[in-house]
Amino acid sequence: MDETLPTSTEEDPILLIRGEDNLYKCLECGHKLEEYDAMRMHYKRCHGLKAERKRKKTEEEKNEDARLRKVRFNERKSAARALAALSKHRPLFSFADAQLRGTYGADNPIVTSMELSIPTAGYGVFAAVDLREGDVVTSYDGDIVYDMPADPTYVLSIDLGKKSAWVDGLSKRQLGKGLGSFVNREDRTKKVFKNCEYLQHGKKMFIRVTKTIKSGSELFTDYGPGYRFKSDK
């Protein structure tokens, strides 16, 4: 004789949630089972009910979710356009701005530095305002040397004529000094890409932005062999 299964109801399915004992408990009879599929079958065979891990959304709910996603997308797009339009109305930050507002401890700074949350990672440089391509934001301060230092960690090459020269950059932050030596390197394996570059102006090195950087975002550059840089001399 064929077994007759109870008829499922038209109501929303029962949500299956594991208890503190890591078992599913039937809300109808108190029976407990470990396996999700076994509890679903128990509800169907014994009580004629549907059970699922989560309730399926109705078409109305799906449509509402899609509408809200579109609204959020348009809001972000409008905000980005407004930011781009606003930034176009101000002059690019200059070398003078970088030396005045791009230093450690500056008033109304363009960039700031802070210790990174990763142990032993040191400091990073972050935009204090929204930056755009072409902004010169800080200088690469340090001592100019003509012999490669024993510790090349913060060494940056500079073109001062026929003789090789380097800037032995700061390893510790100093009030009134630029933050260029604390800009970290891009890491493509972690999808951290370059957004600024080294630039020589006279006998000093600076950091120039190569793409839009929002306030609070970190600056990254490409160290390269000998630290490649551009010159506007």
Automatic annotation (TrEMBL):
Per the record, the coiled-coil ranges are 49-76
* Entries under Pfam families matching the protein: SET (PF00856)
Keywords, comma-separated and alphabetical? Coiled coil, Metal-binding, Zinc, Zinc-finger
* GO MF terms held by the record: zinc ion binding
Q: Which SUPFAM superfamilies match?
A: SET domain
Q: Does the keyword Transmembrane apply?
A: no
The superkingdom of the source organism is Eukaryota
Q: Where is the SET domain?
A: 108-224
Q: Record's SMART domains? A: SET
Chain segments annotated as transmembrane: none
Where the record annotates domain C2H2-type, the positions are 24-52
Q: Which Gene3D superfamilies match?
A: SET domain
- InterPro entries tied to this protein: SET_dom, SET_dom_sf, Znf_C2H2_type
- Protein's recorded name: SET domain-containing protein
